[in-house]
Amino acid sequence: MFWKSLQLKLIFVFVILIVTIILGIGLFSFMKIEEVYYTGFVDEMLNNIAGYNFNVAGIERENNLTAIETYGPEMPKRANIDKFYSNFRIYFSLNNATRYGAMLDSNYQDVLTGNPYPLTKIAKECISIAESSPQRYAVLDDEDDFCYVFAYIIENDLLEDGRVIIVISQSKAYINRQINEIGFLYFVAVIIILFVTLLIAIVTSRSITKPIELLTNKAELMAQGNISLVTVMDKQKAGYEISKLIDTFNILMTQIQNNMNDISSEKNKLETILMHLTDGVLAFNTNGRLIHANPAAKKMLEISSERTFEEIFKKYELDENLEKIIYLDEWSTTDKILSVNGKYFNVFFAPFRNEKDIPTGVIVVVHDTTKQAKLDDMRKEFVSNVSHELKTPLTSIKTYAETLLEQGEDDLDEESRVKFLNVILSEANRMSRLVADLLQLSKFDYKNVAWNKINFDIADLTKQICEKHKIQAEKKNQILECYVTSNVPEVYGDRDGIERVITNILINSVKYTPEGGNIKVYIGAVHDDAYIKIIDNGIGIPEKDLPRVFERFYRVDKARSREMGGTGLGLPIAKEIIEANNGSIDIKSEVNKGTEVIIKVPTYKPNNKS
User: N or C: which end of the chain has fewer CB within 10 A?
Assistant: First the structure.
């Protein structure tokens, strides 16, 4: 846990670095103190010994006669040695608490007392080194007695034995005491420096880690979707380098925010497209879980609680393997046809992959082909009806024509011949009407009709049509009545086309109303439309057939319609004509109760010409 904190790491490293430096300096200082003490001791000894050598020679020259008078001619050297030794002892008395020594002869005996001097092993070793040294002196460190041992060899003819050994021991108690005092002061200084260093390390590390912590918090907020920039105040608290990092971070945040806005915009557009797409779209992951389904797909496949690939398609008995689509079909698509409650759907399956070309799921697109299927069925039925409508009159024409050819003039009387010819003519006229109606519908489909729109009185037109067909109605003992219920303005439209529609509807009413029935025609106006309402009490139309009465070649009762000469194209043509004149046609009917047809045509206005 300790090493996971950058601030603690910085503090630890900073303190260790300072401690290492302080200890290094302290160790070096202690070594230098002892070295200076040692060097000073050696220099002092050499200077003083050199002075005594000079003094020995000086004593001899200055006091030579006195010495002879005092000791006689046989003892000049002895007098000099006594004087020298006396001076030497005075020197020692200056600091006898820390130094002690003696002047020894060649046999290591004290020159003054003549007694053997107690030499330590280190002292003997030091004398040995001095004897062999060109400088005639040596210094050794006696660690057992905590002192330095100095040995100096004096060779002078004025001396009694020609050579004197000076041995001096310098105690290290003084320097040790000084070092201890300095060490205590150094320890106190180290504690203070460590405390100050710790404060500086905390402040310094905090100045580094606080901006980083700030950036970390901003990054966590960004991960939660809350993108915000680092403020200027926070930036001012950071150092130069961290400030540059914050600038870079803010630039990064700005770019991320812009990218997020772009992604969000694209996502919203995609969701809007999918939401309003007429095709159904579903997405499954590699485990078969449903991860997306737009409203069209839910409606088409009736998805409610199903959440897996198998649950959704199993109820339609669709045998499709998800793994096969993902891993075996590569980039190809698989399509199937589903039938759901009378509707037909084409279902396309295609795998989708990530940027590393690894399969991540399957996209399913559901396309409603019900309309195309119905159009296809209508096309097939249309071809069948046209074929049948043409085949029936052609068969009659062929049969009667063959009979006329096979029978001679003597075998067939004039009445029969005329009858056969009338049948042939009637069937030919029937075929002609059928072809004319088909051509008319073809013109409607290709918008290739030249309408002759004018202003005319639709009420007068309707009354004229009713008068024309009264005779036909009276033949069936039907009562045909025409009423104008209000003042009807002129209408603007193709007079011949609208006349054809009214005529067609009125003929159908007469045709499909039994003998003794009633047919009533009402003419009026409502709002901006003129209307013609034709009501009969004929055989009526079943409710299930009403939505299809305007389909081409559709007949409620095919056998009866053909007997009455219908082609199944009258109502489709009527609808095309009325709608081309901006009107409408509507049919209401009940079986065995009658039929009501309402035709509406816009009344004339100066600005409604088109």
Answer: N
List, for residues 389-402, the tens digit of each pLDDT value. Answer: 777 778 888 887 88
> Two tokens at 599?
């035709």
Characterize the bridge pairing of strands 584-590 and 518-526. unpaired
Give the Cα separation of 117 and 111 in Å (integer): 10
Beta bridge partners of 292: 283
Contact (CB, 8 A) for 99 and 171: yes
Interstrand relation of 479-484 and 518-526 (parallel, antiparallel or unpaired): parallel
Contact 364, 281 (CB under 8 A): yes
User: Tens digit of pLDDT for each residue in 57-99?
Assistant: 333 333 333 333 443 444 444 444 555 555 554 444 344 456 6
CA dist., res. 13 & res. 80, Å (int): 69
Average pLDDT over residues 122-151: 82
Please compute, for residue 452, the number of CA atoms within 13 A of its CA located in the half-sphere on the CB side.
5
Given pLDDT bands bounded at 50, 70 and 90, which one contains residue 183? confident
Q: What is the residue-wise DSSP string for 247-299?
A: HHHHHHHHHHHHHHHHHHHHHHHHHHHHHH-SSEEEEEETT-BEEEE-HHHHH
Judge whether residue 156 has pLDDT over 70. no
Which tokens go with 377?
A: 């069925």
Residue in 304, 309, 374 with CA at minimum distance from that of residue 339? 374
The answer to whether 7 and 209 are in contact (CB under 8 A) is yes
Please report the pLDDT score of residue 157 as a whole number. Answer: 56
The Cα diameter of the chain in Å comes to 216
Bridge partner list, 535: 520, 596
249 CB-side CA count, 13 A: 24
Distance CA 349, CA 144 (A): 98
CA distance 23 to 15: 12
3-state secondary structure of 408: coil
- Owner of token pair 């000086």: 58
What is the spatial distance between Cα 599 and Cα 586, in angstroms, rounded to a whole number? 7
pLDDT tens digit string along 442-470?
Answer: 777 777 778 888 899 999 999 999 998 88
Q: What are phi and psi of 165, to 5 degrees?
A: -105, 125
Fill in the amino acid letter for 23: L
CB 136, CB 130: distance < 8 Å: yes
